[in-house]
């Protein structure tokens, strides 16, 4: 037990194995021995295996049970199509390709759909082999219904798994820590001598809480990655929280003395702290849904204070603090807006202060769930999407396997396809690493099975041993590795078929041959279809994202400086960012040597460019900066060139060089009146982007950037 507790602290693998074993065996014995329905029994067992062992369903036990019941009609469709298309090898192969691609590709809609994909594939694979027997369809559907129904009941009654920490709780922790940091900043500006020390003490904890929101730090099933409004809004709120924390650190290193708008900025930051704390309280269920009224009012008061303060003759550095405070207020408004969307509220109802323009970062708030999922499917229907690549790779492998199994007349051809589901990974290297233990385990299990079958053991012994072997086998995968699970699963299959039809030792031989064929197909498909997996696509996707972000920088400054109409840079960059995020999520699921690129910092640099541009376009007047267009254009060109240089380096799979110094010698006017504030806002955004790019290269994953500055801050305080 001590060994088991070390490897499975919450006994998750044991709980799941026990549930699947009990449901599978209960359904199998009921159909085989009580109802005397041999055609029904395998579907009762493999239905439980498909959705209990091969599938990964996120959520609480009640949510998983509900998901199982909702997919029951889909299971009926897959079993029916498999039964009807088994009429010929050509029909079954075509169905395997189309359904294999569709079932896998719809996983792009979110973790719940992705977790069901492998199990749903098996529900078509099992009936799509001979004999062609449409008359057995009612029995097959009954078997699957029994399996799914029992599994749904077992999820909530038999050793239910402890519910994972909800993402909203993680977000609440991050926002609560962030609120403390913002309050410390406001206190410092208000004259509290202890404010800076409190901020230095709070920032490391706040940084850890913000980093815990990153998708790469969470298991795939716990990420807010679905296409629905709620998950999109929670993901947006998390990104905004990390951005706000970075700006809080910027404020720590910004000298507040001499700022001409410090009193108004202090009030604004204090209001942002209050709104952030209110959002954290609501997420914990301890307060009402926050509204943007306070921060909107504070933003208005701050802008009035700037309008009433003549900035002519004021050095640019004395305007930086006000620009940072304004950015904090705008991002806090976006944060609260995202929280309200996550709560189910539509923009503008009943809060009139929320944005009402359909384009922009919150476009999804106006769409219904089916439209959002359809949008996600369409935007990933490109060869550059890792979801599209993975679905096409798997569909091709399964279709080839089904064709060969039919042409070679393999007696248990579905084992070939089951092997592909087991060993085919997102890259050729990952597939090869899974191949050896899978083959060794299968051969070892087949030898034991052959010895048992040669010995002429009574089938009753197999019926008694099945639950024990199944229990150990399903737990062995997570605890001992793929080889053990394959060996024990081979015995499980042997014990099942020994109770349904007469078998001999050649069953074990067929199992080995089928696994070898499936492994060969998986390796070949892995070599020829996007063999580099998420790592290769991530370089290209991140490179594209940074290059489109460069266009966003140029276009935004052009809109602000000379009134040019916005083009397609922002929508293009948003789509590029979504594809890059998907590639990074796949990359995180693979094994790699330490990266020379901080991928999280890379994607953040792109997202900060996009989201900062969106905020500026909304809040700053277009045009009117013609007297300052030359230095602004030069500064934007420098930042955009840095993005393009980083993009070219990533495309070439090279190491990102150290950041170059900021351009010097730019002459900034000091007599443009209120336009000086707009210039300060633009410069603050561009300076932040330059810092973001400096964090990309030369550091291990997850380090650098914000964490380096927080460490510097804590060292200085001590």
Write a structural description.
The chain is mainly alpha-helical and 718 residues long. Helices cover 71% and strands 0% of the residues. The chain contains 27 helices and no strands. Helix 6 (89-105) packs antiparallel against helix 16 and helix 10 packs antiparallel against helix 11 (229-252). The chain is elongated. The chain starts with a helix and ends with a helix.
List keywords for this structure.
single chain; 718 residues; mainly alpha; 71% helix
Distance between the termini: 45 Å
The strand count comes to 0
Query: What's the order of the H and E elements?
Result: HHHHHHHHHHHHHHHHHHHHHHHHHHH
Alpha-beta classification: mainly alpha
Biggest sheet features: none
Q: Can you give the helix content as a percent range?
A: over 70%
Shape call: elongated
Instruction: Return the average pLDDT rounded to an integer.
Output: 81
Poorly predicted runs are: 349-357, 698-704, 714-718
Counted by DSSP, the helix tally is 27
Residues in β-strands, percent: under 5%
Whole-angstrom Rg: 29 Å
Write the layout of secondary structure elements.
Blueprint (H helix, E strand, L loop, with lengths): L1 H6 L4 H23 L6 H14 L6 H10 L1 H14 L3 H17 L5 H15 L11 H21 L9 H23 L5 H17 L17 H24 L9 H22 L9 H15 L9 H26 L26 H11 L6 H22 L6 H10 L4 H27 L4 H22 L1 H19 L5 H23 L4 H30 L6 H20 L10 H21 L9 H23 L23 H20 L11 H12 L1
């Amino acid at each position: 037990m001590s060994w088991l507790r070390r490897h499975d602290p919450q006994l998750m693998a044991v709980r799941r194995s026990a549930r699947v074993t009990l449901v599978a065996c209960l359904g199998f014995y009921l159909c085989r021995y009580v109802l005397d329905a041999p055609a029904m029994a395998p579907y009762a067992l493999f239905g439980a295996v498909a959705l209990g062992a091969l599938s990964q369903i996120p959520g609480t036990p009640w949510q998983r049970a509900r998901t199982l019941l909702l997919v029951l009609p889909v299971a009926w469709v897959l079993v029916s199509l498999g039964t009807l298309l088994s009429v010929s090898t050509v029909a079954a192969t075509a169905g395997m390709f189309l359904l294999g691609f569709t079932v896998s590709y719809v996983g792009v809609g979110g973790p719940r759909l992705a977790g069901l994909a492998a199990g749903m594939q098996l529900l078509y694979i099992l009936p799509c082999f001979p004999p062609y027997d449409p008359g057995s369809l009612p029995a097959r559907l009954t078997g699957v219904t029994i399996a799914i129904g029992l599994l749904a009941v077992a999820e909530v009654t038999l050793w239910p798994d402890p519910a994972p920490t909800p993402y909203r709780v993680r977000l609440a922790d991050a926002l609560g820590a962030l609120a403390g940091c913002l309050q410390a900043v406001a206190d410092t500006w208000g004259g509290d001598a202890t404010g800076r020390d409190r901020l230095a003490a709070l920032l490391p904890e706040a940084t850890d809480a913000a980093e815990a929101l990153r998708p790469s730090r969470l298991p795939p099933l716990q990420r807010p990655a679905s296409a629905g409004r709620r998950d999109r809004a929670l993901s947006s709120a998390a990104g905004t929280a990390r951005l706000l924390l970075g700006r809080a650190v910027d404020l720590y290193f910004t000298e507040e003395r001499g700022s001409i708008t410090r009193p108004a900025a202090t009030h604004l930051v204090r209001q942002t702290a209050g709104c952030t704390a209110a959002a954290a309280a609501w997420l914990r269920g301890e307060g009402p849904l926050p509204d943007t009224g306070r921060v909107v009012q504070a933003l208005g008061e701050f802008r009035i204070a700037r309008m009433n303060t003549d900035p002519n003759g004021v050095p640019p550095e004395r305007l930086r603090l006000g620009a940072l405070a304004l950015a904090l207020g705008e991002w806090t408004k976006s944060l609260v807006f995202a929280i309200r969307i996550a709560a189910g509220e539509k923009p503008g109802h009943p809060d009139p202060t929320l944005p009402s323009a359909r384009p922009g970062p919150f476009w999804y708030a106006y769409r219904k769930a089916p439209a959002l999922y359809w949008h996600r499917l369409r935007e990933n229907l490109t060869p550059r999407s890792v979801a599209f690549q993975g679905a096409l790779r798997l569909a091709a492998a399964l279709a080839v396997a089904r064709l060969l199994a039919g042409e070679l007349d393999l007696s248990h051809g579905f084992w070939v396809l089951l092997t592909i589901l087991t060993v085919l990974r997102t890259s050729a290297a990952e597939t090869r690493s899974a191949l050896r233990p899978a083959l060794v385990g299968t051969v070892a299990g087949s030898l034991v099975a052959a010895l048992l079958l040669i010995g002429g053991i009574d089938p009753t012994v197999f019926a008694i041993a099945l639950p024990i072997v199944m229990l150990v086998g399903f737990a062995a995968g997570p605890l001992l590795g793929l080889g053990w699970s394959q060996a024990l699963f081979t015995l499980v299959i042997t014990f099942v078929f020994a109770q349904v039809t007469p078998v001999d030792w050649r069953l074990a031989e067929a199992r080995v041959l089928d696994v070898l064929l499936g492994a060969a197909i998986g390796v070949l498909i892995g070599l020829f279809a996007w063999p580099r997996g998420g790592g290769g696509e991530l370089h290209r996707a991140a490179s594209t994202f940074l290059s489109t972000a460069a266009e966003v920088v140029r276009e935004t400054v052009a809109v602000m400086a000379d009134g040019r109409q916005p083009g397609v840079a922002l929508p293009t960059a948003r789509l590029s960012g979504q594809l890059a995020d998907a590639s990074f999520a796949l990359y995180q699921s693979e094994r790699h040597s330490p990266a020379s690129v901080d991928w999280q910092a890379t994607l953040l640099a792109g997202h900060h460019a996009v989201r900062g541009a969106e905020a500026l376009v909304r809040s700053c007047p277009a045009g009117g900066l013609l007297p300052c267009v030359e230095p602004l254009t030069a500064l934007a060109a420098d930042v955009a060139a840095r993005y393009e240089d980083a993009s070219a380096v990533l495309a070439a799979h090279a190491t990102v060089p150290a950041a170059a110094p900021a351009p010097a010698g730019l002459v900034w006017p000091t007599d443009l009146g209120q336009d000086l504030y707009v210039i300060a806002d633009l410069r603050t955004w561009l300076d932040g982007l330059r810092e973001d790019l400096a964090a990309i290269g030369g550091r291990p994953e997850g380090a650098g950037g914000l964490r380096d500055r927080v460490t510097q801050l804590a060292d200085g305080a001590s």
